[in-house]
Write a structure and sequence with these properties.
The structure is a homodimer.
Chain A (H helix, E strand, L loop, with lengths): L9 H11 L6 H8 L3 H13 L3 E6 L2 E6 L1 H32 L1
Antiparallel strand pairs in A: 1-2
Helix pairs in contact in A: 1-2, 1-4, 2-3
Chain lengths: 101, 101
């Protein structure tokens, strides 16, 4: 059963960032965890802070981010979303295969 | 939780036709079961016959259609597809709602 691999999008990147910040994370950990560059990482982190999914802590000049309760709920929904989307892709492929024969 | 209701598409129409022909159906039953006009009904039925999801029986001048084993498998996959798509719409709405706050 073959079906096209999707390009990594907003949902996948957000999930990786939320996972990276389950304990606490600096921007470098976010960059490596999500596999994005500094600007992209900071854009997502700022958005997640803005909606209250991450809290900011400062330690001298360094900033740290920690997932909030809302962030944990968001993480759960995103994981569910990605799982369902994959299941949907698989069953769509099965239907298409049957319709072709 | 609000999310846009989808327009009825190919998957929904095929499912209704396959359901209508679980015992045996003439084209009239298909038309009423799937809520489509004669031309659309015949187009779908012909495609389902072509791929082996429906068998044709003739009784004098009348044609009847009966779901095949392949048709039952297709029906199951389509049901699964529609259920997953609805679940995905719901969880997508939840994520969007959290991202907006």
């Amino acid at each position: 059963m073959h079906y096209a691999k999707r390009k990594r999008g907003t949902m996948e990147i957000m999930l990786e960032i939320l996972k990276s910040c389950e304990d606490q994370c600096g921007i470098t950990k976010v960059i490596y965890g999500a596999g994005v560059n500094y600007l992209v990482a900071q854009k997502y982190v700022d958005q997640l802070v803005k909606i209250g999914a991450l809290n900011v802590k400062t330690d001298g000049e360094r900033k740290y981010y920690v997932i909030t309760e809302k962030g944990k709920i968001l993480k759960g929904h995103i994981e569910q979303f990605l799982k369902l989307r994959q299941d949907l892709d698989e069953v769509r492929s099965k239907v298409i295969e049957l319709l072709r024969q």
